[in-house]
Design brief:
Number of strands: 6
Strand order of the largest sheet: 1-2-3-6
Structural class: alpha/beta
Radius of gyration: 17 Å
Largest sheet: 4 strands, parallel
Order of helices and strands: HEHEHEEHHEHEHH
Distance between the termini: 20 Å
Helix content: 40-55%
Number of helices: 8
Length: 202
């Protein structure tokens, strides 16, 4: 949601109709491949609001109830763009790195209250977001060779992680190396990530 200040009222309406939230999935996101120098601040604010501030606000709103009831699960979808530096992803990468760190800390804090927190680190997954992002960067052999997953497989892995109380999911599996060795992955992406096809925006 691009308007985090509207979340408390929306959540109150939801809970009055359906009861307290036991499972929160923060998966909404937007991605724009733009150089920092040409990204309008209005777009930057929207990226940060949707990809970072709103997920944090939702956690802030629902986690106290989960702790009180001693049950619940929070799933935060980050991105490999929050682990490795990719050109054109300054704001998206910052947001995804931020939600990943908050999610990992929440896992440490909440597991003693029987509240599970799962952090998801997807690489490219076939979706409208992925198609739009590819259209904003030049074609390259690296982009064509990198594994791309599908949403159904990712969803199954998240459910499996919840059932077995595992704190993180990396998908496709190829990107597990990057998640375990971020310094090495950073050197690689700095060398091969393409420059964005910069475009002006109103």
């Amino acid at each position: 949601m691009a308007k985090p200040h509207e979340l408390p009222e929306a959540l109150r309406a939801l809970e009055s109709e359906r009861g307290p939230v036991d499972i929160l999935v923060n998966c909404a996101g937007i991605m724009e491949i733009r150089s920092l120098a040409v990204t309008p601040w209005s777009l930057a604010e929207r990226l940060l609001a949707v990809d970072l501030v709103s997920p944090l606000r939702l956690m802030h709103l629902v986690v106290p109830g989960m702790v009180e009831r001693r049950r619940g699960c929070v799933v935060n979808v980050s991105s490999m763009a929050g682990v490795t530096p990719l050109r054109g992803c300054a704001y998206y990468g910052a947001a995804k790195a931020g939600i990943a760190m908050a999610s990992e800390i929440a896992h440490l804090e909440l597991r003693r209250h029987d509240v599970d927190v799962i952090t998801v680190y997807p690489g490219p997954v076939r979706s409208e977001l992925e198609r739009r992002a590819r259209a904003q960067a030049p074609e390259s052999i690296v982009a064509r060779l990198l594994p791309t997953g599908d949403a159904d497989s990712l969803a199954r892995r998240i459910v499996d992680a919840w059932e077995h109380r595992r704190p993180r999911v990396v998908y496709p599996t190829f990107y597990d190396v990057a998640s375990r060795f971020p310094a090495l992955a950073g050197r690689v992406t700095r060398a091969v990530s393409p420059h964005p096809l910069d475009q002006s925006s109103s």
